[in-house]
Specification:
TIM Barrel, 8-stranded parallel β-barrel, 41% helix, lyase, schiff base
């Protein structure tokens, strides 16, 4: 994975870092179809939807399909997460964003977190991309490091800041910097949760994010295009 810190991406380059996301509980198949149309118009990397929204019907061009596993709490048995991952791949998912058991990490059981990630990795081996959601806003710095190390050891592809559903909040520049420092170039870093404007998005990229999870993608990209992030 390439460290993107210090770069200033163009509008199209930033778009290609975006997982265009719709995870609202009230989302309908029509909403997902509209998301896919928007994704192609915006030039984003992928769409990220709930697993029961798969498979997505319609022409998607180069847009990848991403879904979530054990979402949003992570409090699912590893075997259930593995089954969910297998089903998602059968239904067309190319990337999986799984939520770890935050409670296990806070109890000092990073070994269980690593096993959890490994179970999903085994169920969905490469070339499926596996991103590990650590809910960084709810963690101490030491816990963030432990979660990232578990993801590296379990052969994940990315660590991701947040679900966007936790009351502690979403991505922060400080968390992204620490995550990038911990994983180095071995894994990607996805910043997600609360990124609503171009300035915040670019700050995450400068901190080391190589992927962004956005629901308000058009507003972020329009802000960059008009110089709103200057």
């Amino acid at each position: 994975m390439t460290d993107t810190a210090g770069t200033a991406p163009s509008r199209s380059e930033l778009a290609r870092m975006v997982d265009h996301t719709l995870l609202k509980t009230e989302a309908t198949p029509a909403d997902v179809s509209a998301l896919l149309v928007d994704a192609q118009a915006l030039g984003v990397y992928s769409v990220c939807v709930s697993p029961n929204m798969l498979p997505i019907e319609g022409e998607r061009g180069e847009v990848k399909i991403c879904t979530v596993i054990g979402f949003p709490s992570g409090k699912h048995h590893s075997g259930i997460k593995a089954i969910e991952a297998k089903r998602a791949v059968v239904d067309g998912a190319e990337e999986l964003d799984m939520v770890i058991d935050i409670g296990a990490l806070k109890a000092g059981r990073a070994d269980l977190v690593e096993q959890d990630i490994a179970a999903v990795r085994e169920a969905a081996p490469n070339p499926i991309i596996l991103k590990v959601i650590i809910e960084s806003a709810a963690l101490t710095d030491d816990e963030i490091v432990a979660a990232c190390e578990a993801a590296v050891n379990a052969d994940a592809d990315y660590v991701k800041t947040s679900t966007g559903f936790h009351p502690a909040g979403g991505a922060s520049v400080e968390a992204v910097k620490l995550m990038r420092k911990t994983v180095g170039d071995a894994l990607g870093v996805k910043a997600s949760g609360g990124i609503r404007d171009a300035e915040t998005a670019l700050a995450m990229v400068r901190a080391g994010a190589s992927r962004l999870g956005l629901s308000g993608t058009a507003a972020v990209l329009d802000g960059l295009e008009t110089g709103g992030a200057a």
